[in-house]
User: Fold these one by one.
Assistant:
Number 1:
Amino acid sequence: MSKIAEPIQIRNTTFKNRIIKGAMSEALANAAGEPNHLHTGLYEAWAKGGLGCSITGNVMVDLRAKNEPGVVVVENERDLPKLKAWADLGKRYGMVQLVQLSHPGRQCPKGLNKETVAPSAVPFSAMLATTFATPRALEHEEILDLIQRFATSAAICEKAGFEGVQLHGAHGYLISEFLSPLTNKRNDQWGGSIENRMRFLLEIYKAVRAATSNNFIVSVKLNSADFQRGGITEEEVIQVFKAIDDAGIDLIEISGGTYEAPAMAGAKAEQRKASTIAREAYFLDFAEKIRKEVKCRLMVTGGFRTVKGMNDALESGACDFIGIARPLAVETDLTDRLIAGHDVRYAVKPIKTGIPFIDKMAIMEIIWYAAQFKAIGEGNQPNPKLSPLKVFLNYAKGNVKAIIQGKVNSRKSA
């Protein structure tokens, strides 16, 4: 039997196969962050396609801090019936669902939120400074509040019926910002040494575990590197992995990069070693190294395209789960096809509009796929040939509306 088809267990939850849909931003919610029928339609399509597990896109723990328009927010029980409907569809098809809980930190487009907060007031590089504002440094009490927000959101997700959550500690969002010396310049208990910089993550994990039951899965997504000079070192990364493993984490997804160095979007693929390219996955070499250091389950996402490559990775012991993201946006039945022995049908290529300054950012790798998700959620088939330029123009139009509406609401509440 193909290794990817083998079941595996975490706590009391059985995953029927080793394929997990990695988190991708759906951008389907309204301005208030409410989930809707498009989310259930989208995830039901993936469930019908045989997925063993699906990790949702970014779900914000604070309505005041959204990373983009259309993101889901879970900070209270306002949407509990809708969340229950979402969780129930997974159970109907035997698809485990983990909710990715996140705070964007400084990675929020200008005008989207009233203000941007981060560990420290570190501006973006010149290329992105026109899009992202310099954040305000968080106060100690605000940090404690954010820790509790993650715990509250996790408890609501469990009450709704989801099997677990994933803490987003990668890609330059808030947890990742605390970990990196480039974005964390604090000189209190939350900054300085790696022991202090990882405190925020560890305290969130402890709070989430305390707020949920013993059967609830708590996972985390972590960078193997942020691919920036002066960033977190590999030695420090290994310390973080070992610390969160010792704390009792159930599953770690290995990723990498930030908005300023978007390895998570495949932008660094040309720099990979030939041996890594031959083995498909972007972060498999690091997974092999970290496998010797931790006891928890490991998931590698990014680059897998053939059944052989996936089975080889699992057989090597480097990882326990295969994460697949973008191919599932254009092949909702991909899991069933992989288990039947068929490779990914559509090659993933960089999404280019032809406008250089836009194409240098990772944004098109998000919004083009979000357009596919909307079509799937509406019951239509995805379109692999969808025009990136058309998608961007529609997104820009929608962003302007969201920003204007945000400013109007700010004036009303002032």
Number 2:
Amino acid sequence: MTRAFMLLILCGYLILAWGFATRTPPWQAPDEPAHYNYIRFIATTGRLPVLQPGDYDQAYLSEIVSRGFPPELPIDPLRYEFHQPPLYYLLMTPLFLLFGGALLPLRLFSAALGALQILLAFAAVRRLFPEQPAWGIGVTAVFAFLPQHVAMASSVNNDALAETLILGLWVWIAHELHRHQPRQAWIGGLLLGAGFLTKTTVYPMALVALVAVLARAAAEGQPWPERLRRLFPWLLPALAIGALWWIRNGVVYGWPDLLGLQQHDRVVVGQPRTAEWIARYGWMATLDRFWTFTFQSFWGQFGWMGVVLEARWYLLFAWLTVLGFLGLALHLGRQRQGSPLWGIRGILLLLALGLTVGTYLWYNLSFVQHQGRYLFPALLPIALGLVIGWSTWAQGSAAKSLGIACGLGVIVLGIAGVIHGDLPWFPVGLLTGTGLIVWLSARFPALRPYLGLALCFGAFALDLHLALHVIPSAFY
């Protein structure tokens, strides 16, 4: 049954990825033109680009985005991603040359990486928590049907490779925790080194991996010299590969700008800065925008953050978020030491999430970048937390309590609707559906896999509607 579910989820994702890749108008994905220009530069010159003053023009960017990328405004001036590490773009260059620079094949390559992410996410969770086989299926469903994630995976963006490598590292970290094999540890170092050549969002995984190696050695009672020795197969390949890029940047941009980020800050003159935004709009408006845009663009806010969905869909996403994390808290409170999350596995997941969230907050201290997609490097712990939370509500007394709460909510909304002459059908349907699902799950445990499959079909239908109708209609 697991294979059948995985096949259905993967097929559903491939259909959605094709829909997003073909129906999203050219360049109507965040930063896609700048990533495309990076690939084109390598293909046409045979060299890596250097980020220089003039590669970012805020006025031109605002105009071309607001006008929907008309033919008379070329994308050539959009070169502000030229500071990025090169691995993703080098892999895309043969496709660019083979298909004459056509955009769709490049998008489909990224979408193929998204399919690989689904498989790696499943493998990582199954290796991390072999005692909970259902968690792996649930996490893959989140990866496959989270609308914003599918949309981003179907565009030209180096996030596709970065997230793939992060998940590959999770698989190898799980392998390390399960059984240390010295002759194979260097594979983790190669994955980490490839991450250093892909995007800085992979860098936090270096700390996660090192903590995992040390924890495994400590659990075996190894002395500190042996614990440190086990780090070498991870560190040496990773540092050797990363040094190729860091030395190049040191030569091009000068010490100590080994990542090109200082050059980026100097070049992006005119990009909205947080301090200026607060001075203009105030603290409360800035925080409100931060929370609203982060939440909406994590679940689904498309184009260049300009395609906002109907309020009812964000209500659905909010309900799923609340249920997920309240259920996770209930799971941790009830299970206590019995939960597999209590221990090194949970610590590593929490560390990865904390580093990603901290990086996101730090970035927004300087620039106004309220985009929830920047949390996708930590999608594995986020998805796992949601899945555990949702499944908790489907069991025992938790299901009964949630069912009662949903029933009371329907009654209150019904009475309020009658009084005001406007019955809120969507919230009523949401509560009714939730109550019915948890009741069936608790009353008939054998139905749980099929109820989960039905929810996947619902998510697939929503995503397909977004890909085929909502996004194209916003631009045509």
